[in-house]
Q: What sequence folds into this?
């Protein structure tokens, strides 16, 4: 059976499994729909959180990003894992004790204000939506690359699958499919990683192979892999792989700010926070944060190793080699345009140097319905060629997508990687869509518009809104707004500057008042939002200490905290019952009873 | 609030502060601020600062949550506030 056959087998089997699980865990009440009946064991919640958190970007793109960034790639690695320490120590146990359904629930009740509830609900919807569009697109991309179907068809298939298990089973269905999806994605990530590590260093554990010497039979055998990468980079004119703070955007202050903003942003993401409402008690909430991080760490410590192996392999098999001797994986991934070559000096040899080989993504020249070929059989391009010496275009996603072929694995592993990529994208999309729909149907419809709604009405409304949310996400997946890539900074920046500080102070600073919280949130959002719009869309330079928009959430959070505390000190202290609520949230006992309201 | 509860909360804050201090020291300290001096030391093929930034800090994060769970479980029992 060929690659395509195996891919259909793996994708088909996993999809059938997700639908079966959804059918087994269908629910009929709001508690089941929003928080899986609060009966999820910590290990399962850890796996579900890990799958919820690790998106198509973590699975497909992160290793590639690190591979081109080198050392500064650490801000993704530390930022997206360190946030779990904040979650475990500062938020999860207390929110679980509070014991309701959503993030705006806590904000609205703690700050005795529907205005605060609305601001929090709007932030939740915005943050989750910016994320979900990318996921739907990710589903389509995986489909088009592996199954040779149209991207749009892929998006629609993905929408149908998510709709079935999210609308049927709500949080319960999502939780148990996510547990299954975690197992699929981690297996799919580890098998090729172990194979490449074996091949290049002879060590079966990628985390150790990463710091080992190169095995016999490869160029530079016997030397340390990282040293070799540094020498290669230097020879070709790139920044050295382990070099620190080498460019303007990776100065120390900026690396610090981005890492911090990503950590705090991670801890403030609503779809991650609501996962901690699903466990039976406070102790389980703490434990499941630990399990979640352990499961995430397995992938996140493997990714930088894959990045280094792939970079070494790529340079050695392509650079200064004749195009006609290119490896098979190059030919395979040239088809969907993930690699391309322009022979600038006409010597038939691939030169890989710093800078972009041409402007934009590859746009192959088509003659009579076929790609026009050059002198060496390479597809010709319509793109505007740049003046630098680089001739090679490499899409960062290839570092993971081509890893089974680079590792010399057989066809079925490629099918497994496709199923893994889909599992990563679908699990994150489902979690985000539930966060969006619960914010609208629970916080907005039930808590503000129609508090008399019956249990049955509420579940129905939740199902309708999850359906609408999926259709809208699919629409953005098919017609992606040009700014999708730019708005991820927004999601983290806003989570860092609005949701995280408001919950933190709600728990740890009893005197925080309604007025303080609202002013703080608005100040944090305005500063962060305006800065990102100015620097990303209006061409203004990074005017605040040279901090890039990815890191500005750090400053937004500090502004939020400062404004909230100052305004709180001038306004009337929170009512007695709110102070008692804060007291009760701080004590683990009694979390079982507080679940219904 | 009873005296016991106050003491419980104070001890909870102390545990948190210590663990967060380690969290910040390992990631921001060893992984970013001190990365250059640490890179002169090698751990196998890894420059040490680079290792902390891309590997070590993540292991420490997992350990920190584990320790937190253990300490809080003990504290909850000691002050009779566990579930």
A:
């Amino acid at each position: 059976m060929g690659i395509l056959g195996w891919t259909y087998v793996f994708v088909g089997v996993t999809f059938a499994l997700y639908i079966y699980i959804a059918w087994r865990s269908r629910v009929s009440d709001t508690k089941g729909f929003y928080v899986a009946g609060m009966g999820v064991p910590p290990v399962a919640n850890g796996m579900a959180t890990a799958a919820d958190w690790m998106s198509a970007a973590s699975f497909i793109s992160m290793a590639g990003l690190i591979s081109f960034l080198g050392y500064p790639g650490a801000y993704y690695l530390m930022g997206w894992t360190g946030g779990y320490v904040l979650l475990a120590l500062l938020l999860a146990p207390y929110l679980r004790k509070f014991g309701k359904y959503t993030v705006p629930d806590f904000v609205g009740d703690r700050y005795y204000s529907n205005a605060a509830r609305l601001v929090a609900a709007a932030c939740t919807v915005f943050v989750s939506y910016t994320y979900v569009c990318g996921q739907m697109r990710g589903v389509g991309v995986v489909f088009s690359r592996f199954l040779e179907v149209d991207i749009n068809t892929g998006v629609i298939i993905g929408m149908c699958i998510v709709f079935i298990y999210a609308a049927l089973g709500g949080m319960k269905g999502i939780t148990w499919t996510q547990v299954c999806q975690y197992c699929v994605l981690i297996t799919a990530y580890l098998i090729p990683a172990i194979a490449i590590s074996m091949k290049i260093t002879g060590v079966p554990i990628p985390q150790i192979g990463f710091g080992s010497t190169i095995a016999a039979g490869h160029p530079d055998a016997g030397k340390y892999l990282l040293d070799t990468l540094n020498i290669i980079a230097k020879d070709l004119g790139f920044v050295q792989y382990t070099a620190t703070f080498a460019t303007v955007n990776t100065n120390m202050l900026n690396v610090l700010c981005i890492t911090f903003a990503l950590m705090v942003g991670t801890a403030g993401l609503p779809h991650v926070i609501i996962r901690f409402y699903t466990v039976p008690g406070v102790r389980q909430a703490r434990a499941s944060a630990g399990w979640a991080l352990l499961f995430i760490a397995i992938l996140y410590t493997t990714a930088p190793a894959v990045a280094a192996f792939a970079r070494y392999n790529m340079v050695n098999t392509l650079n200064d080699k004749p195009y006609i001797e290119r490896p098979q994986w190059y030919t395979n991934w040239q088809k969907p345009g993930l690699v391309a070559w322009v022979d600038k000096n006409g010597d038939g040899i691939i030169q890989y140097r710093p800078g972009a080989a041409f402007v934009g993504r590859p746009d192959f020249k088509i003659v009579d319905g076929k790609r026009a070929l050059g002198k060496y059989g390479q597809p010709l391009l319509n793109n505007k060629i740049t003046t630098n010496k680089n001739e090679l275009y490499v899409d960062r996603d290839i570092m993971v997508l081509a890893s089974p072929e680079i590792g010399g694995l057989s066809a079925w592993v490629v099918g497994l990687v496709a199923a893994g990529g889909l599992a990563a994208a679908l699990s994150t999309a489902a979690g985000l869509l539930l966060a969006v729909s619960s914010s609208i149907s629970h916080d907005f419809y039930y808590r503000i518009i129609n508090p008399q709604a019956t249990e049955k009405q509420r579940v129905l409304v939740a199902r309708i809104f999850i359906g609408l949310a999926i259709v809208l996400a699919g629409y953005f997946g098919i017609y992606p707004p040009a700014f999708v890539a730019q708005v991820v900074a927004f999601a983290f920046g806003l989570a860092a500057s609005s949701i995280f500080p408001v919950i933190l102070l709600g728990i740890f600073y009893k005197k925080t008042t309604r007025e303080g919280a609202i002013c703080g949130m608005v100040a944090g959002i305005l500063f962060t939002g305006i800065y990102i719009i100015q620097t990303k869309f209006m061409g203004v330079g990074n005017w605040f200490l040279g901090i890039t928009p990815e890191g500005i959430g750090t400053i937004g959070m500090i502004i939020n905290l400062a404004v909230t505390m100052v305004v709180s000190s001038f306004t009337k202290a929170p009512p007695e019952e709110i102070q008692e609520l804060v007291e009760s949230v701080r004590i683990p006992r009694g979390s079982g009873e507080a679940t219904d309201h | 609030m009873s005296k016991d509860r106050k003491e419980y909360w104070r001890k909870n804050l102390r545990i948190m502060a210590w663990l967060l201090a380690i969290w910040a020291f390992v990631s921001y300290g060893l992984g970013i601020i001190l990365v250059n001096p640490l890179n002169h030391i090698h751990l196998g093929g890894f420059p040490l600062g680079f290792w902390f930034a891309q590997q070590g800090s993540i292991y420490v994060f997992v350990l920190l949550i584990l320790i937190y769970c253990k300490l809080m479980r003990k504290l909850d029992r000691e002050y009779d506030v566990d579930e």
Observations:
- The radius of gyration of chain A is 25 Å.
- The beta strands of chain A are 321-322, 339-341, 349-350, 366-367, 370-371, 392-394.
- Chain A has a mean pLDDT of 90.
- Chain A touches chain B through 52 residues (CB under 8 Å).
